[in-house]
Fold these 2 entries.
Entry 1:
Amino acid sequence: MDYALQGKRALVTGAAGDIGSTLVRELHAQGCQVAAGDLDSDSMSGLNELGDKVIALPLDVTREESVQHAVQTAHDHFGGLDIVVNVAGVLCRKSFFETTQQDFADSLAVNVTGPFLVSKAAARLMKDQGQGVIINISSISGSRAIENRTAYGSSKAALDLLTQSAALELGAHGIRVVAVAPGVVDSRMARVRLNTAQLRAEFARNIPLQRLATPYDIAQVVMFLASPAASYITGETVSVDGGLLTRQSLPRPTK
Ligand SMILES: NC(=O)c1ccc[n+]([C@@H]2O[C@H](COP(=O)([O-])OP(=O)(O)OC[C@H]3O[C@@H](n4cnc5c(N)ncnc54)[C@H](O)[C@@H]3O)[C@@H](O)[C@H]2O)c1
């Protein structure tokens, strides 16, 4: 699929992870120049094979100086910044009573404050360009509660509202802000819980499309939202969940 992103300059956070690294490769395949940022800079070494259109940057999205440095470096290296994708995230799997104040603070720091700091630093530069798109990777846990996701779900719900708030104020500067909410992605993050093929298959049977998402599925929607074809979409969170959210939470009827 050609998303008409040739020559665009992008920054992807969480680029060492399953979704982030797939997105970096897919953007590169579309002809983008990509700055790949992650706390775990060692795991980004595999991106070296993509050549000089991809640069790896150490990045802690919770630290404003680190964010400023990465955003400015990406901008200066490529001569501008068209696309920013906030992929970095942490998943706290604890019950309501087990969740500590620190768990809650850590979830908010990475999943909400991080995207806020990155978006603000990038939007300052995009404003001068008169255009840009910021895409936040949220989760369906941000719009429906499930057990053991108090801190995570709260942080992703806040990220959805951050998306709307930023879209509202940045639209006049030609900057779109959107979010993608994956369902269950077959990734390291999900495999901690779905740790056997049998469990994954069982889970997939409850998804209308009968399979887990792949990082590639998520990357495709991100690229569509970054593309000129999506130029009238802003402030939205788009679910990419195989229909998972369509199921009502009442007990299933027997027939
Ligand atoms: N995997 C899923 O099933 C799923 C479902 C819904 C939403 N998501 C969201 O998608 C995003 C990516 O998930 P993934 O499956 O690729 O997870 P992952 O754990 O493979 O990747 C997350 C990356 O974020 C990085 N990171 C964490 N804290 C950071 C920080 N302070 N600064 C910079 N980088 C930091 C980690 O080093 C890691 O490389 C997350 O925001 C996650 O919440 C994932």
Entry 2:
Amino acid sequence: MDIALETEALDVRYGQIQAVRSINLVVPKACITALLGANGAGKTSTVMAIAGVVPNVSGKVSIFGQDMTGATPDTIIRAGVAITPEGRRIFASLSVEENLILAGAATTKSTTSAERRAMMMERFPILGERRRQLAGLLSGGEQQMLAVARALMSGPRLILMDEPSLGLAPQMVDTMFAIIEELRAEGISILLVEQNASLALEIADHAVVLANGKVAAAGTPSEIVGQDILKSAYLAA
Ligand SMILES: Nc1ncnc2c1ncn2[C@@H]1O[C@H](COP(=O)(O)OP(=O)(O)O)[C@@H](O)[C@H]1O
Ligand SMILES: [Mg+2]
């Protein structure tokens, strides 16, 4: 199995609080790996630790076979990793285009930032139409599309998506999941954090369930779906 991302005994601490406990995670290449679990289970902390953003981390992280333990966010971006953060974190008071320009500063590909912006506007025509509009005026779904476009600006091979469907209208949730499946079809590896477990399990190739900062279950969606461990992981918080 070709592996995009692997963590070994990953721990994350915030002072006295241990948010993530010895997590071993494997994200195969060109697959969707769902990371599931209740609020507070440690999903965002895991993602942020992989992205090199959280400081109090121990354990090992390797990305496309390279040891990235303790690497800076910058190095991790250059290794081909992008993130769509929880809550989208776009710049509401900047235009759509300015949001893409800022994301393009981290571009790793031979294409220029302007070329990649043009590609994003072609890929997501609504962003092209609204390029001069303030990002804060977009709908939730359009803002999430912008967050995905920002992530794609660096030409990533692995995307960490933290709750991309949160707060979206049902139709936009379907659109967003279709986009995630398209990215996989293009060969991009995806770690998909979702509260909506049943939906995530519909498109995922593999799933990992966290409870109280630990891996409670891992396997294929058919191995996980309907299991008590999934239900109890969600009831735990
Ligand atoms: N910056 C922080 N400082 C202190 N505790 C935090 C911080 N971020 C998260 N936590 C705690 O870590 C645990 C895991 O949180 P988080 O990773 O956000 O979970 P999830 O994304 O699964 O909801 C929770 O108990 C949460 O309160
Ligand atoms: Mg979270």
